[in-house]
Specification:
single chain, about 140 residues, mainly beta, Immunoglobulin-like, five-stranded mixed β-sheet, four-stranded mixed β-sheet, 1 helix, about 10% helix
Length: about 140
């Protein structure tokens, strides 16, 4: 257990060491200036909006049981670009993805987990999350500037 905690702490340090930033904003309010903040987003952040500088990176790590793994989070457009991460393997029960803000704009990142049987849209840019129970869906908005 200590190894897992140390690995996740190390992952958070590696991810937050990048030049990007993420900060939660209240829905319906203008995004605040993007100041340095932790770039690891989890299922606890579902429904929130985050700001990231163009060129910055953000990690999305969703935790669950082995039987109810989250599907790989998908970004709604080309504002975010998937990037490899050399921080190591995730712990059992975690699904993760790393994105780089490729250009200014807004992207919605979604994921679902069983028992929801939602399938990604034909473009592979999102899941129909509204068809899933709240506890089995994940949605976060990333604003790149």
């Amino acid at each position: 257990m200590r190894r897992i905690s140390a690995a996740l702490a190390g992952l958070a340090v590696v991810v937050s060491a990048g030049c990007g930033t993420a900060q939660a904003t209240a829905p319906g309010h203008p995004a605040p200036p993007c100041s340095r903040a932790n770039n690891v987003i989890t299922q606890a952040d579902s429904g929130k909006t985050y700001c990231v500088r163009v060129g910055g990176q953000v990690a999305i790590i969703l935790h669950s049981t082995q039987k109810k793994l989250w599907l790989v989070p998908l970004a709604s457009n080309k504002v975010l670009k998937g990037v490899p991460n050399g921080a190591g393997s995730l712990v059992v029960g975690a699904t993760g993805v790393w994105y780089k803000a490729a250009r200014p704009g807004r992207s919605v990142v979604t994921s679902v987990r069983p028992p929801c049987r939602a399938v990604a849209n034909s473009a592979g840019t999102g899941y129909p999350v509204r068809s899933c129970a709240v506890k089995d869906r994940f949605t976060v908005t990333i604003v790149a500037r």
